[in-house]
Amino acid sequence: MAFSPFSSSLVHPQLQHTVANMSLLDAIIFYIIHLVDKFGAWHRLPVLLGLAYLGMRRHLHQRYNLLHVGGSKDQKYDTREFSYRTADGTCNHPLNYLVGSQGRFFGRNMPPATSGYGLLEPHPSIIAKKLLERRKFVDCGKQFNMIACSWIQFMIHDWIDHMEDTEQVEIRAPDEVAEGCPLKSFRFYKNKKVQTGSPKPEIGFLNSRTPWWDGSVIYGNNNDGMIKVRTFKDGKLKISGDGLLEHDEKGIPISGDVRNCWAGFSLLQALFVKEHNVVCDMLKEHCPDLDDEKLYRHARLVTSAVIAKIHTIDWTVELLKTDTLLAGMRINWYGFFGKKIKDLIGHKFGPVCSGLVGLRRPRDHGIPYSLTEEFVGVYRMHSLLPDKVILLDIKSATSENRSTPVQEEVPMWEMIGKQGERRLAKIGMEQMLISMGHQSCGAVTLWNYPSWMRNLVAHDADGEDRPDRVDMAALEIYRDRERNVARYNEFRRNMLMIPISTWEDLTDDEEVIEALHEIYGDDVEKLDLQVGLHAEKKIKGFAISETAFSIFLLIASRRLEADRFFTTNFNSSTYTDKGLEWVNKTETLKDVIDRHFPKMTGKWMRCSSAFSLWSSDPTPRNCIPLYLRPASACYVLVSILACFFLISCFQ
Ligand code: HEM
């Protein structure tokens, strides 16, 4: 039903048309969130109201934004024959075995860009030089350390990578900036463009990784990858005697994904290979009849779920340090009433009460699961990477002396690829992990893009160095345009967020405003997504922009609720009793580190999460407001009311 009364002056003129096709209820929801956006900030609301706001936002996105790219007809199969994660991501969606498998299309959270600006408008090298390149390293304080930075790369390599074409393009820096660019020109492969066919002919891009949260970063994205990493004995994966990854004869690590790897990333791969292998030991001890194949399958399910859980209730909470998000992420996993109540009531009262994990059926909101172009766009966070890794001299540290001396500062480019693997082998897992825990990563802000990435030796899918170096800062601007991802303002409108009208709406930093003006003039529509995301004034506690967060909000839930192994099959017959118990008992990365390095966190980590600076103070225990503490009667009362409210909104 069309709803016109809200197309009034109370709604931003550029958003009025989006309300026109909404149902009455959705128009009211839109109006409420629009008012909150306009007159206040949802993150300053009391936690439950903030959660209601986020719930409503997510609801509108799911109904009006998700697009199905390259739709295919149902391809049925018997799900009972596939109670495990397959090597290439097939056989997860209950009605179509192809959904989410390697080589499927990226979806979209909004239509492709309509603005019609050219691929070189303004020139990517000018943006790289004048707005992105690091002048002086800006760190992100105590909030996020180098483990957190490596973690998100570890996740990206689990989910997304655009397939390339065989044709190359060359970008030449214009004279205006050529002097200041480490590469005056650089060549790279175009992304592979494919006609999608149905539902209507359009261009789409293919994902060479499996988008499920299936641990493909350690298990591989297809059969060949899976065979390479397995020992075929007791379900285990290959790992070297020093606890790091094994390497092939060319010095390339043996793991699920080896493209553009560096020492910190390969360290996390090794840690979770160790985790997989101890899960195999545990399962074998309790179920001696399980053969190699079954042990592998169960251990993969368990390890992937541990990774997904850590990302949801540990990493994300550090990324978006607000009470609302702390509550929201725990609700995604456990539901409103928390872990203990979920264990008692199961999923009888739906996702609001018991979270998304363990739902009776996967939910994709009518659009088969994939990750999206916009999701890739908002996760371009190379500014997190520093210029050097600061190695601590952990041997000379004493318990009295809290500030551990620095042993060496290694330039980042020496920690990449095969060279990085050799360095890591000398450093060892313990020293690297402790050092990364004590080093802040970069802030996602303008003028903080690592300069060394402007002259980068990228890798191909086999982990081999490419002959042509690339200017990543310029390339990333080009890539979003090549993929027709909406520019910043159109992106915001499509996400039902209030667009900017002047640079002052984006930021109050005078220097940024001047620089934007120099490059984009007064044309706010031209502003590139990357530049907007990096320039946007941040919400207190957020390490990323609110615009990026709006995509994040949608996809974080979708990765869980659309996956059969986090919903229908999140049970003991699929995971085994002991496997499920393992997932339930593991809450944080610290738990995993403690399992493999029993004395490490006790000695080296003061803070509460392994993702924040290890030398920082722990989060006070009573930081959660009274009405959010599961033990309080007030919590139960307010939660019941909030549940009724949310259920009546969305069901
Ligand atoms: C030393 C560490 C890293 C190196 C060497 C590296 C290098 C690269 C390269 C060469 C590409 C492909 C560029 C192209 O052809 O389009 C890429 C893509 C990407 N990287 Fe990184 N990266 C690193 C760390 C990170 C981190 C920490 C993040 C954080 C989120 C990240 C997020 C991404 C994303 C989202 C893409 C786009 C993937 C796609 O096109 O499908 N990377 N990176």
UniProtKB/TrEMBL annotation:
GO MF terms held by the record: heme binding; metal ion binding; oxidoreductase activity, acting on single donors with incorporation of molecular oxygen, incorporation of two atoms of oxygen; peroxidase activity
Any Pfam family hit: An_peroxidase
Keywords: Dioxygenase, Fatty acid biosynthesis, Fatty acid metabolism, Heme, Iron, Lipid biosynthesis, Lipid metabolism, Membrane, Metal-binding, Oxidoreductase, Oxylipin biosynthesis, Peroxidase, Transmembrane, Transmembrane helix
GO biological process: fatty acid biosynthetic process; oxylipin biosynthetic process; response to oxidative stress
Protein name: Alpha-dioxygenase 2
Annotated positions binding heme b: H382
Cross-referenced PROSITE patterns: PEROXIDASE_3 (PS50292)
Residue ranges crossing the lipid bilayer per the database entry: 626-650
Cofactor: heme b
